[in-house]
C-alpha cells in the first residue's frame, strides 16, 4: 500500500518496500521507500498489506517470509484476514517473533492523508510497542488478544455493507415520490439516516463511478469472512444475510471487478432512475487531507 509507505516515510521512518509488481515498488520508492529484494527484508517491524487471506498465506508460507523473520521482529498484518489463519501463522513464527493483527479502515483517502483507523489485536505489551509507528497512519484502537483486530474490522464492514446495500433503496424511494436527490441527501446527512456511507460514499454514486478503488469481489471476500464469524452466533442475522445477497446479486449482474457501490446501481437500473447529481465530487483516490468530501452545486 503506497499511501502507507508514504505516511511512514514522511514521519522519518526508513521503509523498505517489496511487491511482486515492480511498478508498485517504483511507486513506493517515489514515495520515499527503499526497494527491498524480498518480502522478508530484515526489519524491526514487518508490515503486510494484502487483498486476501490466501495472499498472506502465499507470502508468509509459500514465499517463506514467516521463517525468514529474525528474533525481535514484530510482524503487523494490515490485511483484513481470517482469524484462524492469523493464529496459525503466529504459531509458526520463529521464537522471538511477535505478531499483531491490525486491519485498517478509512478508504483510499484515509490512507493518503494518514487518517486511517487501525484495529489492533495482540499482546498488550507488543501492541504498545508498535503503536507509535501505527499512529503515523491514523488512529489506533487496541481491540484485545491476537485476532480481535480482524473481528472488529469485520464488524465495522458488516455494518458498512448493510448501509451500502440500503442507501440505494432509500434514494429510489425518495426519488420515485418526487423528492430531489440533493434534497434527499441533505436530509439523510442531517437526520437519523446519517452514516459513513451517506457522507463519504454517496458522492461516488452521484459521480457515476461507484468507487472502483474497492471491488465487489473484495466485498464478497469480506462478507465470506463475516459469514464464518456468524457460524458461532446462535441467532439469525437477517440484515447481514440480505447484504451478502445484495452484493452477490451485483456481482452476478455487473461482474466481480465492478466498483463496490455498484450494489446501489442495480436498484437504479431496475427502477429506471438516475442517481447522478451535478456537483464537485472529488474521487476518493484523489482526495487528500485538504480536499472537501464534495458538494452539490
Descriptive notes:
The protein is mainly alpha-helical and 297 residues long. The protein folds into 2 domains: 2-145, 3-Layer(aba) Sandwich (Rossmann fold); 151-296, N-(1-d-carboxylethyl)-l-norvaline Dehydrogenase, domain 2 (Orthogonal Bundle), CATH 1.10.1040.10. Helices cover 51% and strands 12% of the residues. The strands form 4 sheets. The chain has a 3-stranded parallel β-sheet with strand order 3-4-5. The protein has a 3-stranded mixed β-sheet with strand order 6-7-8. The protein is globular. The two termini are 34 Å apart.
At the first level of CATH, the class of the largest domain is Mainly Alpha
Order of strands side by side in the largest beta sheet?
Answer: 3-4-5
What is the annotated CATH architecture of the largest domain?
Answer: Orthogonal Bundle
CATH topology of the largest domain: N-(1-d-carboxylethyl)-l-norvaline Dehydrogenase, domain 2
Radius of gyration: 20 Å
Number of domains: 2
Pick out the low-confidence regions: 289-297
Please identify which CATH superfamily of the largest domain we are dealing with: N-(1-d-carboxylethyl)-l-norvaline Dehydrogenase, domain 2
Mean pLDDT comes to 92
Amino acid at each position: 500500500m503506497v499511501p502507507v509507505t508514504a505516511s511512514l516515510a514522511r514521519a522519518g521512518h526508513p521503509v523498505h518496500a517489496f511487491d511482486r509488481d515492480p511498478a508498485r515498488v517504483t511507486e513506493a520508492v517515489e514515495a520515499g521507500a527503499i526497494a527491498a529484494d524480498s518480502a522478508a527484508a530484515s526489519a524491526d517491524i514487518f508490515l503486510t498489506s494484502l487483498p486476501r487471506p490466501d495472499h498472506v498465506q502465499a507470502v508468509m508460507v509459500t514465499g517463506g517470509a514467516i521463517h525468514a523473520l529474525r528474533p525481535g521482529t514484530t510482524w503487523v498484518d494490515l490485511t483484513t484476514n481470517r482469524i484462524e489463519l492469523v493464529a496459525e501463522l503466529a504459531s509458526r513464527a520463529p521464537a522471538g517473533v511477535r505478531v499483531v493483527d491490525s486491519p485498517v479502515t478509512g478508504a483510499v483517502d484515509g490512507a493518503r492523508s494518514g487518517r486511517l483507523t487501525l484495529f489492533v489485536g495482540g499482546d498488550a505489551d507488543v501492541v504498545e510497542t508498535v503503536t507509535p509507528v501505527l499512529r503515523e497512519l491514523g488512529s489506533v484502537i487496541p481491540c484485545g488478544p491476537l485476532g480481535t483486530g480482524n473481528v472488529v474490522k469485520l464488524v465495522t464492514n458488516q455494518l458498512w455493507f448493510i448501509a451500502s446495500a440500503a442507501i440505494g433503496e432509500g434514494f429510489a424511494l425518495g426519488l420515485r415520490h418526487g423528492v430531489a436527490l440533493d434534497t434527499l441527501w441533505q436530509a439523510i446527512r442531517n437526520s437519523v439516516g446519517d452514516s459513513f456511507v451517506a457522507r463519504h460514499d454517496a458522492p461516488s454514486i452521484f459521480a457515476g463511478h461507484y468507487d472502483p478503488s474497492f471491488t465487489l469481489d473484495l466485498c464478497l471476500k469480506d462478507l465470506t469472512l463475516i459469514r464464518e464469524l456468524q457460524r458461532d452466533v446462535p441467532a439469525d442475522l437477517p440484515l447481514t444475510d440480505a447484504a451478502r445477497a445484495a452484493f452477490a446479486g451485483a456481482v452476478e449482474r455487473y461482474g466481480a471487478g465492478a466498483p463496490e457501490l455498484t450494489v446501489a446501481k442495480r436498484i437504479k437500473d431496475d427502477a429506471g432512475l438516475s442517481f447522478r447529481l451535478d456537483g464537485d465530487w472529488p474521487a476518493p483516490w484523489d482526495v487528500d487531507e485538504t480536499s472537501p468530501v464534495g458538494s452539490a452545486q
